[in-house]
Amino acid sequence: MAIVYKGWMPTVAGKLSFSLIGETTENGPAVSVNRADAAHRYIVSYQNRNLNDSVLPRWLSRVLVKYRGSFNFVCVGRSSNAIDDPGELSGSLMVFRVRGGWLKAEREIRYSQQMLAGIDISQFGLFPRFDCCFGSAIDKIKREAPFWVDFKLHRDGVVEIYLHDDIEKSSGGVNYPPSPVQVERIKDTIAAQCFYFLRDLTHRHQHHSPKTDTLMDLYRCDNEIDWRSESLRVLYRKILDFKRIRKDEVYCSSLGLLIYAKSFRYISKDLLGKTIFPSINDKLLEESIKASQVSTNNSLQQSIKNYDRTRNVTIGVLGLYLSLTSLVKLTDKKIPIADDSMLLWLAEITVRNPFISIAFAVCGIYSYLTAKDVVSYGRFKIVRSLLRFLQPLPKVWNVFFWFFAATAGGVVIAHLIK
Length: 418
Fold this sequence. Notes:
By secondary structure, this protein is α+β, with helices and mostly antiparallel strands.
């Protein structure tokens, strides 16, 4: 017996190309060999993936709580490459810890890749020269894998994943808890991670941002209608969620997901002979998204005008301030200024600490622009890691934190320069 899961790999035309599988940069590059002759295609690919969702950075998780979120995923598959055969890619997906049985499995994987890459297709072809060792290679790798599943990837994007009962007998298998409910949840989670790995190997982000990669999930398949309806419902929910976010790039992702929803509905109707639910008027939804996009762009143009005015005024005031402080520094005459004058105090501070003053001004402007959503500080990796600690706090407190952190950094750099 086997647990059967099904999911959908987003595709518009309903004709996936197996020749591009393995050319991924999501979660880091994959080490892949994908070759085909006139009749057959073989794929051997593996990738190290970081699944650490802890608030702590990876190195700190390893030190404090001995938690490692790094796993190696392996995909070994084959398909027919004949023109008159629609074909399906079938094989196995395996998960390894970074340590343990991975070293033995890696040697077998690299040997299979070298053999597949070294065959002269023009003289011999891949079948049966490589096929004779293909099955034995999968068996050897499976024996070392703590977790593995078999899969079938159809040209229309439908993925079937089979989790067999004898998985618990594999070498160094998963330590399941005593609760049957928790066991099933763990199996579902790891099977879903295998699906995400296969998706990253196969899918290209042509109609949406890579940040929306969790839009499709894997479901236990009791019947064809239920999992397809749930997948379509999730797609439309994502579309409506993105529609409420007033950003132009998010509207583009929403329109891209709508294309996928139309494609999936068409593929399902062609297979089942009837339309699956939910039933939504795609044309009206598309017009609504475009109308919201136009409204947001108009608001954005007004915000840009306001930003330009603010920038010009800020630069003008800052330039006037620096000019005055320079005059105060150069003049030999004593300018009669009241003792409690804030301008005199600021001028003296600026003249004595020019680097610190400039860093403080730049950080202040940058913090203001961040609070107004003009720029984003989350695009830097180190910043994203630190942001995990600040997630429970309101955005204003985040801005204050980065402002003082950046100012402190400017002070340290200024002292180092001196």
